[in-house]
Amino acid sequence: MMWQEDTLFHAYVKEIQAQVLMMPYEGIDLNFVVLLPDQGVDISKVENNLTFEKLTAWTKPEFMNGTELHVYLPKFKLQEDYDMNSLLQHLGILDVFNGSKADFSGMSTKENLCLSKFVHKCVVEVNEEGTEAAAASAGKIILFCDGPDPEVFCADHPFLFFIMHSTTNSILFCGRFSSP
Fold this sequence. Notes:
The chain is mainly beta and 180 residues long. The chain folds into 2 domains: 2-75 and 141-177, Alpha-1-antitrypsin, domain 1 (Roll); 81-127, no CATH class. 11% of the residues lie in helices and 43% in strands. The protein has helices at 43-49, 52-58, 85-90; strands spanning 2-13, 18-24, 30-37, 65-73, 76-83, 119-127, 130-133, 136-137, 151-154, 159-165, 171-177. A 7-stranded mixed β-sheet has the order 9-4-1-2-3-10-11. Strand 10 and strand 11 (171-177) form a beta hairpin. It is elongated, with a radius of gyration of 20 Å. Belongs to the serpin family. This is Serpin domain-containing protein. One of its GO terms (cellular component) is extracellular space. One of its GO terms (molecular function) is serine-type endopeptidase inhibitor activity. Residues 1-180 form the Serpin domain.
C-alpha cells in the first residue's frame, strides 16, 4: 500500500454504500476517481447500480466535500491489449481493411494503403509517484503541517476506479481492482 495526505474531494453515496474519492492530476484536466464500497458490501452491488449519469452526479463539486484525508491505495499496474479488427468490422468500418477501397490520403501520399491489423493497448499504473495512464501522469510533493487528524480513505478491499476528463466528464479509463 502507498499513502498520500492532502485535501481532496470526497463523499459518501448511501444508495450504493460506498465512498467516492476524486484526486485531480496536477497541470492537466483529469481526475482519478475511486468508488470504494463499505467493508462487507459486494462490489457487484456497486457495479449493478452504476450508470454514467450517477457517476457524473456523484463527482460534481456540489455533491463532494473538500476533506483533509489520509489516502491508502494499493500499488498496481493493469495492462490489456485488444484486437480491434472484428469490433471495427462489426461497427461497419470495412473499407479500411480493403486496399482498393481504403482512403488514407489525408494521412499519407502513398496509394493502396489499408489496415491489416488494428490493436488497442491500455496501461494504468498507480504507484508512489501517482497514477499513470498512457501518456498522462501526475505526482505531488506533500508538505506536512500540524492540525486536526485527517480522515482515512483506505482501499484495502475491492474498488472501482476511473480516469475522467474534468471538463467533459468523459471516462478515459475504468477498471476494477479486486485483490488489494
